[in-house]
C-alpha cells in the first residue's frame, strides 16, 4: 500500500475508475497531443544504451507510475521506435490506469500494423509487446523478482516521485531502483531517470513558501467555486461529458500539499447541452505531493547505493540521472 492510498483511500484520483480517460483528455487539453518534452530525453538515453548493448538479451525499460502508458507509447511510436530487442514494462499501482494503458496501446499498435507507411519496417516491436504490472513504486522490484539486476533503463516521469509522500517511501523506492538496475560492468551503465516537477522545487517555485504560509485548514471553503475549470467531452463514450471543478490545495505540517477537486460525469441532452443533461456520477478526488528537499534527496540517493550522474532541466521539470555507485 503506498502513501496515496493510505491518505486518500477511494478518493485517490489515479486509483478511481472514473479517472483514466478524463486524465488523458485533460492532459491533452493542457499540453497538447504530444509528444511530451521528456520523450526525447528518454529516447536519447535508450538509444545511448542500445548503442553499447551487445549481449543478445532484451533491453529492459521499466516505466514506474506508467499511468495510461504515455511514456511507453511515446517511445514506441517516435522515429527509431523499432529499436530491436527492447522489452517495455509498465508499472502502476492503479489497475484502472493499467487497463487503459493496455487498451489504448493495443489500439495504437493495431493502427500501426494497418498503416501502409509502416509496411516493410522491422516487426521486432510486435514480438516484444509491453508487459503491464500492478505494483507500487516503493516495492516495484520486489514485485518483479525476474527483473532484479536486469533493468537497463528505469524512468519515473512527470514528477511521479513527488507522489511518494509516506514516511521513508522515497528511500524505499531508491533502494528498489538500485536492486533492479543491472550491476556495473557493461560498456554503458544502466540508468534511472527520475523527474521532479519545478512546481515542487522551492528554488524553482518561490510561491511554495507563500502558499504554505497562507494555507489555513480552518478556512477549507476559501476559494471554492461551482464554476467548472474543465469541460471535456468523452471520446470513448458518445454523449458523455466530464466536468471538473477547480482544484483546492491545502498543506500539512510535513511539506505535503493535497490537491482536491470533483469530477461530474454527465449524459448530454439530445441537443448536446451538458448543462441540462443527466448527472450519472459525481466523484470527489484528491492526490498529494511532497515539496522536494534536495539535500534529503542527495542523501537518500547515496544511501541507496546510487550516484547522480547528470541533472537536466526542462520547461516544467528536472531530471536526475542515477547510476549504481559501484561500491
UniProtKB/TrEMBL annotation:
<dbReference type="InterPro" id="IPR041698">
    <property type="entry name" value="Methyltransf_25"/>
</dbReference>
<feature type="region of interest" description="Disordered">
    <location>
        <begin position="209"/>
        <end position="232"/>
    </location>
</feature>
<feature type="domain" description="Methyltransferase">
    <location>
        <begin position="61"/>
        <end position="185"/>
    </location>
</feature>
<dbReference type="InterPro" id="IPR029063">
    <property type="entry name" value="SAM-dependent_MTases_sf"/>
</dbReference>
<dbReference type="Pfam" id="PF13649">
    <property type="entry name" value="Methyltransf_25"/>
</dbReference>
<protein>
    <recommendedName>
        <fullName>Methyltransferase domain-containing protein</fullName>
    </recommendedName>
</protein>
Amino acid at each position: 500500500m503506498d502513501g496515496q492510498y493510505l491518505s486518500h483511500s477511494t478518493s485517490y484520483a489515479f486509483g478511481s475508475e472514473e479517472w483514466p480517460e478524463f486524465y488523458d483528455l485533460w492532459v491533452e487539453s493542457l499540453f497538447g497531443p504530444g509528444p511530451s518534452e521528456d520523450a526525447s530525453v528518454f529516447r536519447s538515453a535508450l538509444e545511448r544504451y542500445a548503442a553499447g548493448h551487445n549481449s543478445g538479451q532484451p533491453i529492459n525499460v521499466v516505466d514506474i507510475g506508467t499511468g495510461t502508458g504515455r511514456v511507453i507509447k511515446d517511445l514506441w511510436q517516435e522515429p527509431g521506435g523499432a529499436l530491436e530487442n527492447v522489452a517495455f514494462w509498465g508499472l502502476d499501482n492503479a489497475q484502472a490506469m493499467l487497463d487503459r494503458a493496455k487498451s489504448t496501446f493495443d489500439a495504437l499498435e493495431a493502427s500501426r500494423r494497418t498503416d501502409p507507411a509502416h509496411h516493410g519496417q522491422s516487426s521486432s516491436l510486435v514480438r516484444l509487446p509491453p508487459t503491464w504490472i500492478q505494483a507500487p513504486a516503493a516495492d516495484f522490484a520486489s514485485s518483479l523478482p525476474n527483473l532484479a539486476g536486469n533493468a537497463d533503463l528505469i524512468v519515473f516521469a512527470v514528477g511521479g516521485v513527488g507522489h511518494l509522500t509516506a514516511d521513508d517511501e522515497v528511500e524505499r523506492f531508491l533502494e528498489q531502483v538500485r536492486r533492479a538496475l543491472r550491476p556495473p560492468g557493461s560498456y554503458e551503465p544502466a540508468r534511472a531517470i527520475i523527474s521532479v516537477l519545478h512546481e515542487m522545487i522551492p528554488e524553482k517555485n518561490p510561491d511554495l513558501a507563500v502558499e504554505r504560509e497562507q494555507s489555513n485548514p480552518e478556512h477549507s471553503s476559501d476559494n471554492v467555486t461551482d464554476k467548472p475549470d474543465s469541460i471535456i467531452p468523452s471520446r470513448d463514450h458518445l454523449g458523455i461529458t466530464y466536468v471538473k471543478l477547480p482544484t483546492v490545495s491545502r498543506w500539512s505540517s510535513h511539506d505535503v500539499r493535497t490537491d482536491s477537486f470533483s469530477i461530474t460525469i454527465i449524459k448530454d441532452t439530445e441537443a448536446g447541452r451538458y448543462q441540462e443533461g443527466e448527472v450519472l456520477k459525481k466523484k470527489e478526488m484528491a492526490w498529494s505531493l511532497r515539496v522536494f528537499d534536495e539535500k534529503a534527496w542527495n542523501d537518500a540517493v547515496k544511501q541507496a547505493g546510487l550516484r547522480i550522474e547528470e541533472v537536466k532541466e526542462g520547461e516544467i521539470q528536472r531530471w536526475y540521472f542515477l547510476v549504481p555507485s559501484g561500491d
